[in-house]
């Protein structure tokens, strides 16, 4: 019974993918993706309840394991997945109507998006670092075709860079995993790459070999998580992918890659002490924040703007993880969820805008508020949520990370991070207010009436914002899960 | 197999791995590179094969056969198709670093590999683990090829070279990571290469060339 519940979040999207493979894409089957995502979220809630009541669960003879940390990540995948898949039908219908896609591309899009969700779920359920690696690498291959979907010069370029950089980065992580396995082989218990087994054998792992392995693993998964200096694929891929895919990549792919770093950090802290990964993470986090802040100021493309904002937020998440106290970890996990929701709302909203306006240049968009008030309202509040204004949850999580950081003696790094985040936030607000406010641009093509925002998309954007605000006021029923997940991530369950 | 023969064959195969990697820096024609790649795949299969014969492990024997099929058969075939799609202009004409410098860099990278791998050898000294630096050197040389070549198919060669090096390290640490993970890794590499091959084709369709330097639409 428990096994069935645990396997539901993987099984549903696999079934969805098979359905699209067999029956193709029609307005009716378009809703299957939303259904599987909703089912996945429901199963995640169920799993979280079971884990909360009776501790970690194991299935499939130890290949699959859920604890509070994986259960929380399942909730993130489910929530962001539902946001993205619920707006996919209207996105695809608009593309087909505009002649930029056919029902064949729509079927392939839906199939790959389902496979993406299945792979990401498998990654957080894996009890073994090797399986976790396979699942994360599989998403590179799955999403390559989603990034290159439009087959323009830009899309082909983005897809090529994406596959080459991510495969190379993740190959380093594979080398790290092999070396960790080698170290594990020379301990009395020989745990292989089993995550719990590795923690148990930590006192007998060879420190010198583990140090090399951990560095490779953090750099490799850091590449996939979009941390500088290995972020180069991210702005290109996010700006070329269809909006629902960008939302998934920002909210889920980066988060799951960072989840892998958290698991590696646990082993490393037990073998080498907290300092080693902390130093790596602080360097990568500050580099990401500095890069994102400087490139956001002069940004001219609003999709790339959101991509760099993802680099910035992953930087904040990394600095929180570097602090590593239970309070910091709870804030980090809340930040992961809050970022997924806010970034999802913005990618989906701006995706809709770019579909109707036909451009993603910031200077060509003016006066959205006057023509499309609902969309503009969602985008405006989305940016406020993203830069961490109360009552949205990113305010609570940034405050948590900052307070934990100052009390852990990382004050200088936190201060630098907050300053850079403030610069990035100011740049985002300035760019966005230019697009939303002011008089609509005069010129050819602006005389037609503004296209109406599809009801489903409006509902999704509002729901995402409402959830983000609710989480900022009180984590509510999530509080216990967050605390046990943070305890696991700090290695003090 | 006697211990002396085992060590000799193993060292010979590892020497082959390193030599073929350096050859990839020296030659420019993609067709030649693919033939060198086949030889490297064979050397890798021999590393797995002697390991299997030495330990009497059936599982490792299966891995050896798998490596032979994938790295000396399927992957070169995919590469050949990528080159055929590119047409007659299949020479790496303008690499960022010339041959002489590349060879010097390869020598340096090999030294670096020996330096950083010392803890790996020290953990469990044996004939197999003392060859780990060779695997690391192949990874580094592959990375170098990847970042200095401008044609899409030669970048593909660099990626595969890295991957061969990682596989060699995996085999030489004599640990094995279990059949599930081994299979998953091989499948991932195969798929990644297929994806890159498809993208090479698309690149030629949209750009009329596979020069990665043409990729400059996206920047800040």
UniProtKB/TrEMBL annotation, chain A:
GO (cellular component) term, any one: plasma membrane
Stretches assigned to the NADH:quinone oxidoreductase/Mrp antiporter transmembrane domain: 126-423
This protein's record includes keyword Transmembrane helix: yes
Alphabetical keyword list: Cell membrane, Membrane, Oxidoreductase, Transmembrane, Transmembrane helix
Pfam families xref list: Proton_antipo_M
Cytoplasm recorded as keyword: no
UniProt-annotated location(s): Cell membrane; Membrane
Transmembrane segments: 6-23, 30-51, 63-85, 106-125, 131-148, 160-184, 212-233, 245-264, 276-298, 305-323, 329-353, 374-397, 409-432, 453-473
EC number: 1.-.-.-
Biological processes annotated in GO: ATP synthesis coupled electron transport
GO molecular function, one term: NADH dehydrogenase (ubiquinone) activity
Domain of life where this protein originates: Bacteria
Topology of this chain in the membrane: Multi-pass membrane protein
InterPro entries: ComplexI-like_HydComp, NADH_UbQ_OxRdtase, ND/Mrp_TM
Main subcellular localisation: membrane
PANTHER family the record matches: HYDROGENASE-4 COMPONENT F (PTHR42682:SF5)
Name of the protein in its database record: Hydrogenase-4 component F
UniProtKB/TrEMBL annotation, chain B:
InterPro entries per UniProt: HyfE-like (IPR038730)
Keywords noted in UniProt: Cell membrane, Membrane, Oxidoreductase, Transmembrane, Transmembrane helix
Source organism per UniProt: Kutzneria kofuensis
Coiled coil residues, start to end: none
Protein name in UniProt: Hydrogenase-4 component E
Membrane topology: Multi-pass membrane protein
GO-annotated molecular function: oxidoreductase activity
A GO cellular component entry from the record: plasma membrane
TM regions (residue ranges): 6-26, 33-54, 60-83, 95-116, 122-147, 159-177, 183-200
Subcellular location: Cell membrane
Keyword Cell cycle (UniProt): no
Enzyme Commission code(s) on record: 1.-.-.-
């Amino acid at each position: 019974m428990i096994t069935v519940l645990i396997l539901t979040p993987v099984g549903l999207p696999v079934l969805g993918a098979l359905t699209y493979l067999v029956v193709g894409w029609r307005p009716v089957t378009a809703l299957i993706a939303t259904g599987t995502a909703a089912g996945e979220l429901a199963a995640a809630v169920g799993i979280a309840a079971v884990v909360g009541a009776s501790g970690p669960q194991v299935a499939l003879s130890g290949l699959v394991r859920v604890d509070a940390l994986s259960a929380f990540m399942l909730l993130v995948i489910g929530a962001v997945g539902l946001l993205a898949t619920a707006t996919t039908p209207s996105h695809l219908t608009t593309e087909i109507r505009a002649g930029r896609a056919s029902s064949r591309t729509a079927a392939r899009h839906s199939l790959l998006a389902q496979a993406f969700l299945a792979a990401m779920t498998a990654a957080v359920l894996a009890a073994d670092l090797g399986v976790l690696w396979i699942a994360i690498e599989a998403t590179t291959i799955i999403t390559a075709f989603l990034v290159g979907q439009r087959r323009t010069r830009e899309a082909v370029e983005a897809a090529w860079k994406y596959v080459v950089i991510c495969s190379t980065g993740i190959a380093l992580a594979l080398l790290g995993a092999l070396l960790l396995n080698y170290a594990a082989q020379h301990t009395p218990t020989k745990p292989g790459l089993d995550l719990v087994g590795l923690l148990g054998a930590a006192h007998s792992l060879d420190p010198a070999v583990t140090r090399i392995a951990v560095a490779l693993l953090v750099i490799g998964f850091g590449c996939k998580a979009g941390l500088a200096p290995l972020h180069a694929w991210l702005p290109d891929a996010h700006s070329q992918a269809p909006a629902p895919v960008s939302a998934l990549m920002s909210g889920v792919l980066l988060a799951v890659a960072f989840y892998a770093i958290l698991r590696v950090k646990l082993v490393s802290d037990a073998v080498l002490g907290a300092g080693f990964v902390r130093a790596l993470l602080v360097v990568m986090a500050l580099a990401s924040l500095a890069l994102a802040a400087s490139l956001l100021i002069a940004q001219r493309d609003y999709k790339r703007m959101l991509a760099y904002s993802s680099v910035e937020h992953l930087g904040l998440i990394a600095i929180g993880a570097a602090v590593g106290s239970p309070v910091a970890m709870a804030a980090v996990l809340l930040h992961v969820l809050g970022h997924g929701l806010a970034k999802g709302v913005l990618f989906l909203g701006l995706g809709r805008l770019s579909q109707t306006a036909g451009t993603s240049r910031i200077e060509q968009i003016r006066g959205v508020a006057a023509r499309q008030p609902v969309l503009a309202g969602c985008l405006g509040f989305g940016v406020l949520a993203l830069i961490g204004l109360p009552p949205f949850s990113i305010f609570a999580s940034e405050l948590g990370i900052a307070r934990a950081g100052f009390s852990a003696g990382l004050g200088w790094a936190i201060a630098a991070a907050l300053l850079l985040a403030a610069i990035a936030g100011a740049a985002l607000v300035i760019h966005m207010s230019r697009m939303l406010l002011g008089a609509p641009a005069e010129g050819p093509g602006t005389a037609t009436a503004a296209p109406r925002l599809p009801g489903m998309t409006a509902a999704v954007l509002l729901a995402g914002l409402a959830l983000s605000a609710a989480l900022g006021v009180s984590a509510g029923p999530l509080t216990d899960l967050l605390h046990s997940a943070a305890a696991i991530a700090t290695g003090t369950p | 197999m006697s211990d002396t023969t085992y060590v000799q064959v193993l060292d010979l195969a590892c020497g082959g791995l390193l030599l073929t990697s350096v050859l990839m820096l020296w030659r420019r024609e993609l067709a030649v590179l693919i033939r060198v790649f086949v030889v490297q795949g064979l050397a890798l299969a021999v590393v797995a094969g002697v390991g299997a014969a030495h330990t009497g492990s059936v599982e490792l024997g299966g891995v050896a056969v798998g490596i032979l099929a994938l790295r000396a058969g399927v992957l070169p075939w995919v590469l050949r198709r990528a080159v055929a799609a590119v047409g007659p202009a299949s020479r790496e004409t303008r690499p960022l670093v010339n041959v002489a410098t590349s060879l010097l860099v390869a020598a340096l990278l090999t030294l670096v590999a020996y330096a950083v791998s010392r803890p790996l050898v020290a953990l469990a000294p044996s004939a197999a683990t003392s060859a780990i630096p060779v695997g690391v050197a192949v990874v580094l040389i592959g990375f170098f090829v990847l970042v200095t070549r401008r044609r899409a198919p030669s970048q593909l060669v660099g990626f595969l070279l890295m991957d061969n090096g990682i596989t060699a390290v995996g085999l030489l640490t004599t640990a094995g990571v279990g059949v599930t993970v081994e299979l998953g890794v091989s499948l991932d590499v195969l798929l990644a290469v297929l994806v890159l091959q498809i993208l090479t084709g698309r690149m030629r369709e949209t750009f009329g060339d596979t020069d990665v330097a043409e990729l400059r639409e996206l920047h800040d």
